[in-house]
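Consider the following assembly input.
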Amino acid sequence: AQTVTQSQPEMSVQEAETVTLSCTYDTSESDYYLFWYKQPPSRQMILVIRQEAYKQQNATENRFSVNFQKAAKSFSLKISDSQLGDAAMYFCAYTQGGSEKLVFGKGTKLTVNP
Amino acid sequence: DTGVSQDPRHKITKRGQNVTFRCDPISEHNRLYWYRQTLGQGPEFLTYFQNEAQLEKSRLLSDRFSAERPKGSFSTLEIQRTEQGDSAMYLCASSLIETLETQYFGPGTRLLVL
């Protein structure tokens, strides 16, 4: 079965500090895409960052970057210079190339302390 | 360019009643997805459409659930004879094949079955 594991149900970080959220996944496919989505309280899910599995270079989007370790099937998210607005549930997800459905982890609740 | 919209945002119903939700995808997006999210969990895939064709249905989608996407534009998700276990957030997402699988989510419809 295709699975995504987020081992940290909750994390906290001080404003302006850096935090890393962990994610591992299990797939036998070679062509797939990985995503981090953010879901603020009572607000809709928005895309934070994406990574194509065939690319060796780690994706970055401003303060957000990933550490993609394909052999280890690991896809962690680093948030630098954390801001109060970063507080949210963060979901790791993947989808196979040419498809269809996103498979999500259970999420990590991030709290940013002022 | 407006985002994905869903209607209604909230629905309270009594057990045994039928409910219908609507999703309007981003204009020109040819793929549309339905997910269900229960409290403390990541979204789970229900079904998806490519244009008007329903291409995959999850085992989660019992025969009480039906989805349509007439003319390949908006979609409806109907739940017949609702049960308390149907209480959840129902999320819709859309994507464009050419944008390499990135799905954009709507705000969701929160269903409470009493």
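The interface with chain A takes residues 33, 35, 40-45, 48, 55-56, 58, 91, 93, 100-108 of chain B (CB under 8 Å). Ask yourself how this observation constrains the way the partners meet.
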